[in-house]
Amino acid sequence: MNLKSSSRRAFLQSAAGGVIVSASLTSPDTDAAAASEAIRVANPVSGDVLQTQGMLSADRRQLIEQQRAIPVAGNTDVLVCGGGPAGIAAAIAAARAGASVQLIEVAGCLGGVWTAGLLTKILDAENKSGVMDELLTAFASRGSEVARDSRGTVYDPEIAKLVLEELCVDAGVKIRLHTRLVGAVTDSNNRVVAVLTESKSGREAWLADRFVDCSGDGDLAAHAGCRFDVGVGSDCECQPMSMLALLTGIDAEAVRPYIRETAASAKPLLLKLMEDNGITPSYRGPTLRHLHSGIYSIMTNHEYGVSAFDADAITQATIRARREIHEIVNGLRSLGGIWKDIAVVATAEQLGVREGRRIRGRYHITAQDLAKGLKHPESVCQAKFPIDVHALNQDGNKEVSREFKKGGLKPYDIPYPALIAADVDGLLMAGRCISGDFIAHSSYRVTGNSVPMGEAAGRAAAISVKQHVMPHELKWDEIKG
Ligand SMILES: Cc1cc2nc3c(=O)[nH]c(=O)nc-3n(C[C@H](O)[C@H](O)[C@H](O)COP(=O)(O)OP(=O)(O)OC[C@H]3O[C@@H](n4cnc5c(N)ncnc54)[C@H](O)[C@@H]3O)c2cc1C
């Protein structure tokens, strides 16, 4: 590395949880220009890499990585982290509002829990317009009879992958898959100015005027130094994770009583069938859905007490969950009759995470807001989905934790300020990482709400760039159009 980097180090100040960079980073001085000349970018064709220089600490518990220059891979008006239901809506809306948009996604497809998680059901979407309505129409018209009958709310994850990619490409969104956000940089005005990623292309920096955190887990905001909450109580107890799977080898008419869309009795009936035959699923509400022709989806697994921020624990849970799904399907097959040919087509590549960080915003949605049916002048959308806290542990063998439902719920508004980070400027959130308490999150987290949140955050990001104001200075009337 160029020795000039030592003087450059003078304006890089270390700070807990990240690096604070002076505003001069975005207006290069001669030092920065000289440093940029020294940046070697790995050639993606030859498979070349930039080697890491480091020093092991004396106690061998840490590797001190040498300071290095990171190539700037992109510079857009808006950068969206996470291409799940919230992220694709944010990216599409920002691009349609005239912004240049970079979308960064760690998985190999767009859609998040919808696709990599094999979800197959969109909840709380009936009363939504805009991008949500557009997606339901596309999932229905390009999907199976089941998708059409459910107005697109029961969808095929493969069709969803394709539709989301097409919509983003058509809107002009620059998509980067297989890339994980690993850091964020704020300037001396406490404004987010850059993020860092890791991928096969190495470590890269991305500049933007506005950022939208749609990572579900609030990764971008946490790296930017925002305050956040996790789970409930001092142990940060979270809802369980679940792995979903696609199945085949059963006949739709024969298994109709067990299909979730047929009747409320379907889940208890399937649980009884399993238990009567010595199968004890970790999720007490096994949910079977018919997607199209010979394809079904199943949710029958709960992974309790796993932190969304512990890669080792997630790895163990993933292995456990996949094994359980295969064991349950093998168990059903051994019953013979209508189950004799049942088989697993695919298990989800991503273990479904219900809860990560809830980032502190400029409004905090609470259980009291749900109880009174909050009406807010800056309403992004109205949420109606019930309080839905899955059992937090295996005590009592329950499907859900009913004690959190006591306050009740009336349809309530999701206020725009709950999408604006409280602690830094230029950062919005959408999806399950917005600002709210444990109980409120259990309701607003579903995807029929994540999409309108993303749409609002994306439009706000784009319009705030155009008007040279921060997202919190925008009037809601200007965003909603
Ligand atoms: C098992 C399960 C069942 C559910 N059932 C339903 C249901 O039936 N219907 C319903 O509507 N909702 C359901 N939900 C809730 C719903 O799926 C989520 O709350 C919803 O997906 C939130 O959308 P999101 O875009 O905020 O997050 P996600 O869907 O989690 O998307 C986040 C995206 O960000 C990406 N990402 C994360 N971190 C990074 C990073 N550091 N860098 C780059 N990319 C990153 C992820 O890969 C992902 O694509 C369920 C959730 C789970 C887990």
Automatic annotation (TrEMBL):
Q: Please, which domain of life does this record's source organism belong to?
A: Bacteria
Database matches in Pfam families: FAD_oxidored
**Which InterPro entries does the entry mention?**
FAD/NAD-bd_sf, HdrA-like, TAT_signal
Key words, A-Z: 4Fe-4S, Iron, Iron-sulfur, Metal-binding, Oxidoreductase
Q: Does the keyword 4Fe-4S apply?
A: yes
Entry keyword Lyase: no
Name of protein: Thiamine thiazole synthase
